[in-house]
Amino acid sequence: MKIKQIIYSFICLFLIGIISLNFFILNKNPDIFTQTKIQLFSLNQGDSYSGRLNLWRLLVQNNDWVNAAKLEPKLNSSEISDYKFNYQPSELQKKVDYLNSKSNKSVEDLIELARVQFLLNQKQNSLVSIQKARQLDPIRDDIDRLYYSLSK
Q1: How far apart are CA 107 and CA 35, in angstroms?
Q2: Do 125 and 146 share a structural domain?
Q3: Whether residue 36 sits in one domain with residue 12
Q4: pTM of structure
Q5: Second label for 96, Cα 20 to 30 Å away, from 22, 53, 111, 125?
Q6: Are residues 80 and 129 in the same domain?
Q7: CA distance 48 to 88
Q8: CA–CA separation, 44 and 42 (whole Å)
């Protein structure tokens, strides 16, 4: 009987040690999701809101618009409208359609088209757009850098 108690005590101490080590490591170097969750569940309303906003941004960056939309009613719309306009797939597609419909595209139009197509995961179309921009203005370094980064 006493041996069982010693074994159980040893197992419990071992598990407590592992759990404590995990908490120590997470608190010492938390990843961005852990930091956001800590903020989200803070008792301070400002920290909690900041955590909610950061979680929304992380979800959007991971293209999880369904879960991001669940957080939107609890966020200030002015803080997320710009980001939605620049990254939401439906808005991006509107930009692509508008830019494609223009008959005389400027270099800036083609660069923007390449950026938006890249965000929509249309990498081949993005490369074609930046090639056209490069043909229109072959001496711009920023277009060359973008071209070579996309062609890799």
Answers
A1: 41
A2: yes
A3: no
A4: 0.60
A5: 53
A6: no
A7: 24
A8: 5
pLDDT tens-digit profile of 13-42? 888 988 887 777 766 666 677 777 777 777
Tell me, yes or no, whether 126 and 141 share the same domain.
yes
111 in Cβ contact with 143 (< 8 Å):
yes
**pLDDT per residue of the chain (152 residues) written in tens, 0 to 9:** 688 788 888 888 888 988 887 777 766 666 677 777 777 777 777 888 888 888 888 888 887 888 888 888 888 888 888 888 778 888 889 999 999 998 898 989 999 999 889 888 889 999 999 999 999 888 888 888 888 888 77
User: Exposure string (b/e) for 46-56, b if CB count within 10 Å is 16 or more?
Assistant: eeebebbbbbb
Which residue carries 């090639």 as its tokens?
A: 131
Based on the fold, state whether residues 101 and 64 are members of the same structural domain: no
Distances (CA, A) of 151 to 15, 111, 139: 51, 15, 18
Q: Tell whether the torsion through CA atoms of 130, 64, 25 and 45 is positive or negative.
A: positive
114 and 135 co-located in one domain: yes
Q: Which two tokens stand for residue 52?
A: 């909610």
Residue 12 structural domain? 1-30
DSSP label at 41? T
Number of structural domains (the chain) is: 3
